[in-house]
Design brief:
- This is Alpha/beta-hydrolase.
- One of its GO terms (molecular function) is carboxylic ester hydrolase activity.
- Keywords: Hydrolase.
- Belongs to the AB hydrolase superfamily.
- By secondary structure, the protein is α/β, with parallel strands linked by helices.
- The chain folds into two domains: 175 residues, Rossmann fold, CATH 3.40.50; 65 residues, no CATH class.
- The chain is built from ten helices and six strands; from the N terminus they run ααβαβαααββαβαβαα.
- The strands form two sheets. The protein has a four-stranded parallel sheet, sandwiched between helices. The chain has a two-stranded antiparallel ribbon with strand order 3-4.
Amino acid sequence: MHGLFGSKQNWRSIAKQLSNKIGASVVAVDLRNHGDSPHAVLHDYPSMADDVFSLCDKIGIDKFHVMGHSMGGKTAMHMALSNPSRIESLISVDMSPIVLNLTSIFAHYITAMREIQNARVKTQTEADAILIKTIPELPIRQFILTNLKHVPGQDYLSFRINLDALEASLGPQKDICGIAGFPLSDAGKTYEGPSLFVKGNKSGYVPDSAIPGIKRLFPKTEIVGLDAGHWVHSEKPNDFIKVVEAFIKANTSK
């Protein structure tokens, strides 16, 4: 499962390589309000987890390893805590079950995307010219622009992600709603199966202060740091695949 503003395309290369190495199917999903999946007003971890469990039911997968990056990582954690009997193992990629201050930076990205939407741009180049005014980092602009698509019958580009729902999900964390927090319904629960937390050593999403909480919720946890930022799997794909392959092979029921 991908992170905020991502899609199943983020996992294409990794999924193919992992499938070959572990000899099993790897299913990459578009979470709600992202990619080719339907839009919905509610965007929180219980809803996303339910969506994925429903998908697994439809394609006949009862028990499985679950892996997610960032927002997808928290979704995977909630799946393991809320329905542990179906989870063979948990892999969280650069995310921890803590409250993060996401509002300022990601709301900034949404503002830029709304400007592009309102400008009714016809090319990616036009869109990038708007983004570069406030987002100088080329990789981030390229990542955002993967969501800009042609819509049949429209002569301008539109974002396929649900900007309204995602913006609302970044608001104050009063309850289980909101992706910067973590579901209050998971408080006091534990997942006793094997867990792997792969963190980027140059990222701040899995700080040392979060490790006691991780181990409290996921007692059988292995934490591995790679020399990367937040997008660990795209920055260090070979190292990432090696770590994940070894973990899955060691924790697959015979």
